């Protein structure tokens, strides 16, 4: 897959290179560690990787009180059967539905379910995740980054483990029950982009699959594999064809403004969110049309998108805000 190129200041405060020369492709590609080798390091920080016993007990709790038809429809019985066939209760049990760089686990302190992501220690993702989850940015109300509980460095293997709360892809699987909740979710997506751009970070892979929820009306971004920080870069430019939704300028092989790439992707997210959830919001059409403009110079900034979105909300009457998508 083609790697994103960029014109930016390698001495910026977000650069993962420091005073060393790293291969961009090597340090930013996905890692697939031998998880058993790092089990004790992760446990020493208070997190347990899922074992066959953990997975079996999870399914037993989940299946209580549910009808057989419901379990068959969700393929839970096959997951339970797999957990029962484990060679050893204490052996690690990967989730077959996750890529090799992710592993489910549990916080030993309170039983909270977590997802642990393996990345190169010198990758942009580890650097940006550390910045977004550290003071003062972590406490900013506009920061809708997935809560990161710990960042574990293994310098001798150049590996980093990002421990995140386990949230759900609700916008895709179980959309908000009313238009007000749906618009609140979209606003959080817009607000986080304003926050990132204000701090010179471009996400570069905004999509529905990279937005999760805690099912308590909070939504957050994940997956900063392609993200870049442009501190100290007056006019950043990128080139390449990676990410879910590629804007026209990158399709044409041109150098592009990374922030306007994000605006295009966010516009596509708004379109897809309305289509998948069934919410019809004609008031959004004008805003989305500007965000998807073929000429990136005619797309609004993230701050302007948020301002126009907030101007749109009072135009929707209360009865529609309380309505569902049906």
UniProtKB/TrEMBL annotation:
Signal peptide: none annotated. One of its GO terms (molecular function) is protein kinase activity. SMART domains: S_TKc (SM00220). It comes from the Eukaryota. Residues 103-313 form the Protein kinase domain. Gene3D superfamilies: Transferase(Phosphotransferase) domain 1. InterPro entries: Kinase-like_dom_sf (IPR011009), Prot_kinase_dom (IPR000719). This is Protein kinase domain-containing protein.
